[in-house]
C-alpha cells in the first residue's frame, strides 16, 4: 500500500505535534493500542504511512529550514516528545495575506511572528503540483479568512484533498463544498476537535443533561493558554468564526435556546502549550431544584488534537481511494467542531466506522 503524502500549511505547535507524533508511533505494532486513535491501522493505513512532502509558513525562523528543524523553532512551545530525523522537506514561504494579525507582527504583547516582507511567497498551487500530495492540511492561525481560502483554492487547482483544521468555514460552506465535489476531491472540516478537550467535554456534559431531562438554563466555557494560538486570539476581531464554531458545537445538542458564552478568554505566556478550561453549567431537575456543574480541565493543547488529525488523514485517503468527492459527513461530524452537519458524538463515531468498513458513502 502506498504512502499518504501530506502537505502542511502553518508549521506551528499543531504541525509540530503531528510530525512528532508520526515518528513517536512509527514502529507501533498493529495490535498495540495508541491513545487517541480510532484504530492503529485504519482502512489498511498505518501511522507510518503518513509522509510529509511540502510545508508552508511565513515566520523567517522556520522558512528555509528542514521541516524536522522548523517544528522546534520559535515561537513554537510544544514540548519535544519524539526524535525526528531529517525529512528532506524545506519549509517554503507561503502568502501572508491575513494569516498574521497586526498585534502578532508588531510583537505588541512581547511575542509573535517574524515576517520578512522582502522575501516573496511561493506559488502554493505550483508547489503542490510539483510535490503531488494527497492532502493539504490547513493549520494557519485562527482568523486567517483570506489565507485559508487561498490554500483551499490552491488545493483545488492542484487536485489535492483538503483538511481544514481551523474555524474558517470551508467544508461547512455549501459554496466551497460544491467546489471540491465538482473537482472530484474530498474535503473535511472545519475546526478540529481535540481528543479530550474543552469542546468534547462540554458536549458530553450537555448531552448527558439533555438526555436525563435536566433543563439547562445557562452555560459558559472559558479557556486560557500560553501558545501562539491564544496570543493570536487575544484580539477579539480574530475570534468571530472561532466563537461561532465552539458555540454551535455545544448548542447544537440542546433543543432550545440557552444563554451561552464560549471561547478563548486570555493569554498567559508562562502556561506554554498547556490549556486550562473552565466549564460552568446551571440547570433545573425534578422539583425545579438547581443543578450546578463547575469543573476545570488542564491538558497539553496541541498534541491533544493530533490523534484525531491522523484519523482524519487516513479517512480522507480512503475517500480518495474510493473516488469520493465533496464534504465527508461522517469524519467531519466526529472530528470537527463545525462540520457540514452536526451529530451527537456517539452517532458520528458509528458513522465513521461504517465509512471505514465501506457501508457508508461519506
Q: How is the secondary structure organized here?
A:
Blueprint: E1 4-9, H1 13-24, E2 50-57, H2 67-70, E3 91-93, H3 102-105, H4 124-131, E4 135-138, H5 145-158, E5 161-164, H6 174-182, E6 186-188, H7 198-211, E7 215-225, H8 228-232, H9 240-251, E8 260-267, E9 274-284, E10 290-300, H10 306-322, E11 326-327, H11 329-335, H12 345-356
Parallel strand pairs: 1-2, 1-4, 2-3, 4-5, 5-6, 6-11, 7-8
Antiparallel strand pairs: 7-9, 9-10
Helix pairs in contact: 1-10, 4-5, 7-9, 11-12
What features would you describe in this structure?
This protein has 362 residues and is α/β, with parallel strands linked by helices. It folds into 2 domains: 4-193 and 304-356, Rossmann fold (3-Layer(aba) Sandwich), CATH 3.40.50.720; 198-301, Dihydrodipicolinate Reductase, domain 2. The protein contains 12 helices and 11 strands. It has a 7-stranded parallel β-sheet with strand order 3-2-1-4-5-6-11, with helices on both faces. Helix 2 links the parallel strand 2 (50-57) and strand 3 (91-93). The model has no long low-confidence stretch (mean pLDDT 96).
Largest sheet: 7 strands, parallel
DSSP helix fraction: 25-40%
Structural class: alpha/beta
How many structural domains are formed by the residues? 2
Quote the average pLDDT.
96
Shape: globular
**What's the quaternary structure here?**
single chain
What is the CATH architecture assignment of the largest domain? 3-Layer(aba) Sandwich
Q: Helical stretch count?
A: 12
CATH homologous superfamily (4th level) name of the largest domain: NAD(P)-binding Rossmann-like Domain
For the CA atoms, what is the radius of gyration?
20 Å
Enumerate the spans where pLDDT stays under 50 for 5 or more consecutive residues.
Answer: none
Amino acid at each position: 500500500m502506498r504512502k499518504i503524502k501530506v502537505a502542511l500549511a502553518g508549521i506551528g505547535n499543531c504541525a509540530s505535534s503531528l510530525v512528532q507524533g508520526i515518528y513517536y508511533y512509527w514502529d507501533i505494532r498493529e495490535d498495540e493500542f495508541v491513545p487517541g486513535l480510532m484504530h492503529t491501522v485504519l482502512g489498511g493505513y498505518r501511522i507510518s504511512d503518513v509522509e510529509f512532502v511540502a510545508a508552508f509558513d511565513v515566520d523567517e525562523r522556520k522558512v528555509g529550514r528542514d521541516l524536522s528543524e522548523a517544528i522546534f523553532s520559535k515561537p513554537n512551545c510544544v514540548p519535544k516528545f519524539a526524535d525526528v530525523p531529517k525529512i528532506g522537506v524545506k519549509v517554503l514561504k507561503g502568502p501572508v495575506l491575513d494569516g498574521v494579525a497586526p498585534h502578532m507582527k508588531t510583537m505588541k504583547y512581547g511575542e509573535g511572528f517574524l515576517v520578512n516582507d522582502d522575501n516573496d511567497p511561493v506559488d502554493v498551487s505550483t508547489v503542490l503540483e510539483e510535490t503531488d500530495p494527497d492532502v493539504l492540511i490547513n493549520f494557519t492561525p485562527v482568523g486567517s479568512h483570506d489565507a485559508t481560502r487561498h490554500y483551499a483554492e490552491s488545493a483545488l487547482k492542484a487536485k489535492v484533498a483538503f483538511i481544514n483544521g481551523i474555524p474558517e468555514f470551508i467544508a461547512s460552506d455549501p459554496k466551497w463544498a460544491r467546489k471540491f465535489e465538482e473537482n472530484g476531491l474530498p474535503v473535511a472540516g472545519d475546526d478540529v476537535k481535540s481528543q479530550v478537550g474543552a469542546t468534547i467535554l462540554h458536549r458530553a456534559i450537555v448531552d448527558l443533561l439533555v438526555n436525563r431531562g435536566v433543563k439547562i438554563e445557562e452555560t459558559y466555557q472559558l479557556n486560557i493558554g500560553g501558545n501562539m494560538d491564544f496570543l493570536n486570539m487575544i484580539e477579539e476581531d480574530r475570534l468571530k468564526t472561532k466563537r461561532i464554531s465552539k458555540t454551535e458545537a455545544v448548542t447544537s445538542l440542546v433543543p432550545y435556546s440557552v444563554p451561552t458564552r464560549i471561547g478563548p478568554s486570555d493569554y498567559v505566556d508562562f502556561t506554554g502549550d498547556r490549556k486550562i478550561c473552565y466549564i460552568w453549567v446551571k440547570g433545573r431537575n425534578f422539583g425545579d431544584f438547581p443543578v450546578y456543574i463547575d469543573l476545570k480541565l488542564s491538558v497539553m493543547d496541541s498534541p491533544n488534537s493530533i490523534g484525531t488529525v491522523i484519523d482524519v488523514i487516513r479517512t480522507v485517503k480512503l475517500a480518495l481511494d474510493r473516488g469520493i468527492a465533496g464534504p465527508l459527513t461522517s469524519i467531519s461530524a466526529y472530528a470537527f467542531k463545525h462540520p457540514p452537519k452536526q451529530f451527537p458524538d456517539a452517532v458520528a463515531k458509528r458513522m465513521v466506522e461504517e465509512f471505514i468498513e465501506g457501508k457508508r458513502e461519506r
